[in-house]
Amino acid sequence: VARESFGAVERLRGAPPGSVSADLAELARIGSSPGAGIERTAWSPELFAAYDWVARRMAEQGLAVQIDGAGNLIGSWNVGRGAAIVVGSHLDTVPHGGALDGALGVVAGIHAVRLLRERGVVPSRPLRIIAFMDEEGTRFDTALFGSRAFAGDDLSSLGDRLDGSGISLREAMANAGYDHRAVGSARGVAAVHAYLELHIEQGPVLSADGIAVGAVTSIVGMRRFQVELVGCANHAGTTPMELRRDALAGAARISLALRDFVRGRSCVTTNVGKLSIEPGGANVVPGRAEFTIDVRAADAAGIVELEDFVWETVRSVARDERLESRVELTFSLDPVQFDPSLIEAIERAAAAEGASCRRIESGAGHDAMVLGQHVPTGMIFVPSDGGVSHSPDEYTPPANLELGTRVLATCLQDVLSRER
Ligand SMILES: [Zn+2]
Q: Residue 72 needs a FRET pair 20 to 30 A away by CA distance; which of 248, 311, 371, 400 works?
């Protein structure tokens, strides 16, 4: 999927040295290849090179830097007393990713510390900037790994998950110097007072309407499934149509049934994004199909209804096509509503910085949806040009990146001042 240009990063590179945008352009060099965007997958050398770069930036702002047992990079401003305020996001990317998804939230967190110091703010509580490991989950289907470990979820069953080249998560962690059995040591949520995350919208709403800041109200719930259908591979010319057990036909029917189910409903989506069939010959009936299903819904009832529909549809289509079926639920997170007082704090901060602001729901998953199950959580969106994301072309004008960072800093200042 080579791209002819990587213009988005070039446009960031023109920003003044030392700005959030210029830092993001520099960070974007790590893991990037000409024409193909950025690739820093979980536990890869590229991701740890990005950690090194970010750790230096954290140290320059006087933060104490450590990496926990789940591979989360943590920069701490150890001041004040009590539970910490955490600002987080992630440095891993999807394959052929862009410069802003995740990276913005981490870099902006460090710049927010700089702004607070410049404003003479001494926080009443510790402030931590965290880059969570493996938010995207594209390598091992272990999305939100670092934030889930930080929240205390038991991830011990994930060690055997394999990447595309047959390396297990356990091995990938060992190769990077980490012990999968020690992931539980990353649990840290009990010492968190509140969580804030700045992220690009990854959708078109703010950009289309010329709004500078989104105060996120909620994130959709998700379920992800791995499905295997087994029929019978046979000669495509001699096997009569009514006698075939075509695994691809089953997969196609399931994909379309899901699409038809959610069409006409609001705030629900389904996607079959990965599909492989075997044996894979133009003149052979597909005997085996393996595919993923991703479903999302804004409310708890909706996600339960969707999950039930997936199980039932796979069962009924498989029966109808005379296929064997195996379904595994590989990922599950319920919808989360963000903290009303933090939503208001974000709106106040936007007003104080002269930024237009609107409340918005997120259809994309973020580390904030994990933290939001445990502690008061707020999320700030800045516009994605044209709604493009998970692409080398994802872009937000530098002025919006700087403004979003100032809103984050002002919001932190607001939250810290209100509890004095
Ligand atoms: Zn992200």
A: 400
